Amino acid sequence: MADEALFLLLHNEMVSGVYKSAEQGEVENGRCITKLENMGFRVGQGLIERFTKDTARFKDELDIMKFICKDFWTTVFKKQIDNLRTNHQGIYVLQDNKFRLLTQLSAGKQYLEHASKYLAFTCGLIRGGLSNLGIKSIVTAEVSSMPACKFQVMIQKL
Amino acid sequence: MSRQANRGTESKKMSSELFTLTYGALVTQLCKDYESDEDVNKQLDRMGYNIGVRLIEDFLARSNVGRCHDFRETADVIAKVAFKMYLGITPSITNWSPAGDEFSLILENNPLVDFVELPDSHSSLIYSNLLCGVLRGALEMVQMAVEAKFVQDTLKGDGVTEIRMRFLRRIEDNLPAGEE
User: Fold this and answer.
1) Contacts of A16 in chain B (CB under 8 A)
2) Where are the transmembrane segments (chain B) (predicted)?
3) Partner B, chain A 84-143, Cβ-Cβ below 8 Å
4) Taking the alpha carbons of B143, A2, A130, A54 in that order, is the dihedral positive or negative?
5) How many Cα atoms are found within 13 Å in the side-chain-facing hemisphere of B49?
C-alpha cells in the first residue's frame, strides 16, 4: 500500500490550508504554528496509544525517547532518527539528517524561512506521544540546512 | 520469520492509522475555523482537489496502468487499483446509468472514518468529502471532468458508503497556437 504519498500530500495541504486562511504577519504566523502543533498533538496522542498497546513497559525516560526515535519514527517517517543526544537533565536533541517532510522542498537556502511551517505538526506529534506516556514536554525544531533538522525536547519536571 | 511478517503488517496498519488520525485532526480543526458545515465541506473538497492533481502523477508512476478506453474501464481502475493502492480497500462498482456515464462506488468500510462518530451538531458535515475532491482532481489531470458526491454515508446511519460519480465531459487539450 502506498499511503505514504497520501500522508505527505495531506500534510502539505494542511500547512497551506492553515496559512491561506490566515493573514500575513508575525502574530498570525505564530497562530498558524500553534494550530498545526495542536493537530499534531492530537494525532500523536492517538497514535502512541495504538502503538504501545502490546509493548513492554518502559524502563525510564531514556527508554521512551529511544522508542520514539526508533519505532515511532520508523512508522511515521519510514526511517529512524539519526542521532539522539541528551544532557541527562531532561533535554534531548533528536537529529534527522533527511527529514521526510522537508525532502520535497528545495534544499537551498531559499525556503529556509518556510521550513518551520513543515515542522510544527511533527513537534506536536512528539509532544502528544510523550504526553500520553506520562511525560510533559516542550518540543521545538530548528533547521540549519535542509533537509536535515533537529528537534529539541525539553522535559517538564512535575 | 513469521514474527517479522507480523511486524510488517502491523507497521502497515499503523501508517494507515497515521493518515486516518491526521485527517481527523484536520477536519476537527476546520470545524473550529469555519462557521458552517457547508464551508467545511467546500474546504475539504478543495483540499482533496489539490491532492488529486498531484496524486495522479504518483499513481501513474506506481501503477503502470495504460490509457483507459472508456468510462467503465476508468471505473475499474479507480476501484481496483487506485483505492486498493492508497486506502487498502476495493470498493464495488454498481448502479451504472443506462448511458454509461454515471456509476456508484460502494465502500463497505471506509478507513477515513475508523475512529469517528459525528456529533449531532454537525449533521450536514460530509466527513469524507476530501475523497470526492481527490477523484475530481485526479481525473481532471487525465482529461476527464467528473462530478463526485456522497449519496450514502455510514456515519449518517446508512448501511454502506456510496460515492456517485458522473462523467461530465472530456477536457480537450488546448495546444499552444502553431503546434500540432
Assistant:
1) 50
2) none
3) none
4) positive
5) 14
CA distance A134 to A23: 36
Residues B48-92 pLDDT 10s: 999 999 999 999 999 888 888 889 999 999 999 999 999 989 999
- A51 touches B at CB < 8 Å: yes
Q: How many domains does chain B have?
A: 1
CATH number for the domain that contains residue B86? 3.30.1380.20
Q: Would you state the pLDDT for residue B53?
A: 94
Candidates A47, A43, A143; CA nearest to A98 is A143
Q: How far is A66 from chain B (nearest CA, A)?
A: 17
Who contacts B156 (Cβ-Cβ below 8 Å, separation ≥6)? B118, B123
Q: What is the largest CA-CA distance in chain B?
A: 62
Specify the long-range contacts of residues B86-94, CB closer than 8 Å, at least 24 apart.
Answer: B86/A1, B86/A2, B86/A3, B86/A5, B86/A6, B86/B55, B86/B59, B87/A1, B87/A3, B87/A6, B87/B16, B87/B111, B87/B112, B88/A1, B88/A3, B88/B16, B91/B163
Helix (H) / strand (E) element for A37: namely helix A26-51
Residue of A nearest to B11 (CA): A75
- What are the residue ranges in chain A where pLDDT is below 50? none
Distance from CA of B49 to the nearest CA of A (A): 10
CATH of the domain at A83: 3.30.1380.20
Q: What is the ipTM of this complex?
A: 0.88
Q: At what angle do helices A26-51 and A3-20 cross, to 10 degrees?
A: 150
Which residues of A fall within a CB distance of 8 Å from B17? 46-47, 50
Q: What's the number of CA atoms in the CB half-sphere (13 Å) around residue B147? A: 6
Kindly report the pTM of this predicted structure.
0.87
Q: What amino acid is encoded at B50 in this protein?
A: N
β-bridge mates for residue A91, sequence order? A154
pLDDT of residue B146: 93
Residue B110 pLDDT greater than 70, yes or no? yes
Residue A94 belongs to domain spanning = 4-155
* Residue B50 lies in domain: 16-170
